[in-house]
User: Which sequence fits this backbone?
């Protein structure tokens, strides 16, 4: 270790520990993700991908989860004590409304009353069985 020139010298070629290969002490803003850092974008700006303390905010602890746009396909996000909840449109389900709900048409029978004889009367049943609606076409 050279006094005055080097801040540290751990004698290895790793940037990811407390002393970089340039013999500078690991710090937030040096562009290298070291121990205790979630990210490091080589600056100490808070307004970009990596905050000034190099710690990514934890949803439900540091910031509201809904600011992450977690609900997909038009789902409505609500922050809860333990995180968030998505209120999904009828066509989607899953924690983040990411799963399409299968539409199954059952009971298709010829509708004798339609006049044309070509219409069907059926039923819409969602894959989770919660909603069904009569279907005519
Ligand atoms: Ca090192
Ligand atoms: Ca760093
Ligand atoms: Ca930054």
Assistant:
């Amino acid at each position: 270790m050279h006094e005055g020139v080097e801040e540290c010298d751990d004698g290895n070629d790793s940037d990811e520990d407390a002393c970089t290969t340039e013999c500078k002490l690991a710090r937030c803003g040096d562009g290298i993700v070291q121990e205790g850092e979630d990210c490091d974008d080589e600056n100490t700006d808070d307004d970009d991908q990596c905050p000034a303390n190099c710690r990514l905010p934890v949803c439900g602890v540091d910031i509201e989860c809904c600011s992450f746009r977690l609900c997909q396909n038009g789902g409505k996000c609500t922050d809860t004590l333990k995180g968030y909840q998505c209120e999904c449109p009828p066509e989607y389900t899953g924690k983040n409304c990411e799963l399409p709900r299968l539409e199954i048409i059952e009971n298709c029978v010829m509708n004798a009353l339609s006049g044309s004889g070509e219409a069907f009367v059926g039923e819409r049943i969602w894959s989770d069985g919660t909603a069904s609606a009569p279907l005519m076409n």
In short: The chain has three domains: 1-55, 65-99, 102-136. The beta strands are 76-80, 83-87, 92-93, 99-100, 103-110, 120-126, 132-136. Residues 108-112 have pLDDT under 50 and may be disordered. Residues 10, 12, 14, 17, 19 surround calcium ion (ligand 1) (CB under 6 Å).
